[in-house]
Automatic annotation (TrEMBL):
<keyword id="KW-0551">Lipid droplet</keyword>
<feature type="domain" description="CUE">
    <location>
        <begin position="323"/>
        <end position="365"/>
    </location>
</feature>
<dbReference type="GO" id="GO:0043130">
    <property type="term" value="F:ubiquitin binding"/>
</dbReference>
<dbReference type="GO" id="GO:0005789">
    <property type="term" value="C:endoplasmic reticulum membrane"/>
</dbReference>
<dbReference type="InterPro" id="IPR003892">
    <property type="entry name" value="CUE"/>
</dbReference>
<protein>
    <recommendedName>
        <fullName>Lipid droplet-regulating VLDL assembly factor AUP1</fullName>
    </recommendedName>
</protein>
<feature type="compositionally biased region" description="Low complexity">
    <location>
        <begin position="388"/>
        <end position="397"/>
    </location>
</feature>
<keyword id="KW-0256">Endoplasmic reticulum</keyword>
<dbReference type="GO" id="GO:0036503">
    <property type="term" value="P:ERAD pathway"/>
</dbReference>
<dbReference type="GO" id="GO:0005811">
    <property type="term" value="C:lipid droplet"/>
</dbReference>
<keyword id="KW-0472">Membrane</keyword>
<feature type="region of interest" description="Disordered">
    <location>
        <begin position="368"/>
        <end position="397"/>
    </location>
</feature>
<dbReference type="InterPro" id="IPR048056">
    <property type="entry name" value="AUP1_CUE"/>
</dbReference>
<comment type="similarity">
    <text>Belongs to the AUP1 family.</text>
</comment>
<dbReference type="Pfam" id="PF02845">
    <property type="entry name" value="CUE"/>
</dbReference>
Amino acid sequence: MEPPPPPPVTPERLFDSHRLPGEALLRVSLLLYAPVGLCLLLLRLFLGLHVFLVSCALPEGRPRRLVVRAMCAVLGLLVRQSHAGGQEEGQQRRRTRTTTRRRPPRVFIANHVTPFDHNALRLVASCSAPVLNGSSGFLCWSRGFLEVGGAENRTELLESLKAYSAQGDNPPLLLFPEETTTNGRVGLLRFSTWPFSIMDTVHPVALQVQRPFVAVSVADASWVTELLWTFFVPFTIYQVRWLPAVCRADEETREDFAHRVQELLAVELGMATTRLTAADKAEHLKRQRHRPSAFYALPAPPAPLVDGASQPPPRAVPVEDGPLLGMGQRVKEVLPHVPLAVIHKDLAQTNCVDATIANLLEGRVPFLPSEGEPEASSTLPSVSGAHPSTASSPATAAAKVFARSPEARHLSLQERKWALYDYARRKYTEKYGVAQREGSP
């Protein structure tokens, strides 16, 4: 019997949206550790300033990396490095080191997990990570980024990076083709091709990050928040594995070259390759931010009829979300016989007034009419003038007839919607005393 296929890699699996763990035991452990973590946070904030000053005072080189690495260990930032593969690749690694002595590596390609990946890699190797978001100044310099010209334009950025790499005295470039961080557990984002246009030989670097109690990174968290959590937890371990250099074939395109390096890193990390990009992460975060936060009670199913009476329909529950409440009132004006609880329930899923009205009219959302309110079939007026087709048949009669052709069903829906809109417009005019203009749609 073949094992079931692995579940598809979705943005929900690639990006963590919650910092705290879901297990009850881990939550209790984190609660007990919180006083110690707060003390460590305050102490490490004071020590972190000294680490920054020492890193600025010492010149670039191996002694500086050793000193700063030891001081970062006090801050809870531990970096370990190793070479990928087993003993069978020893000869290949020796050949790679021999080639590296003659031709130093100019481009490192790594997966992206936290906002401080470049700082961790700089503790074990001399490299520079360029700024890609167009920002510059003291803040970027203090975080260890390399400021290059043309960061706003991708073509100018490539020219600047090529000119930088052409100078042999400069440290190698450290690039993250994913262009954004992931949780580092499930898969890799699709690699951009522009980092592979700088040099034909790249050195992949597999990066894994571990920390106790809380998630390594959260999708919508800022680098300041990540820094505070790094100081709060006991330690954060960065495991760096150096892969052999990869050269682009003569007839290999940049896309194929990027995909081949992505597969090598995915196999080394035990993760999957995906076609998702940084734009998909931005869209995922946008959907999360606009997801309605209203809470409501689900309407209970109606009780069976006894002596011609049924259980009263559920009462509407107050909604906490202001925009959702406003949309619910708009739907209620058009469909006064629909309970608010049913309207809010469907609005939480559609977040659209027109879609909710269509769902209620088409019968996709079952409901019982509210007490004390007339049915739509008895209150809808006949429409004349601009929409004469709706005058002969009420909305309820049209709802009970299911046309066979899509065109007829669409026309029936439009007729019912126009009738309900005219009814709602007339109620609004009668309520607020606004004279309806002749010829209005």
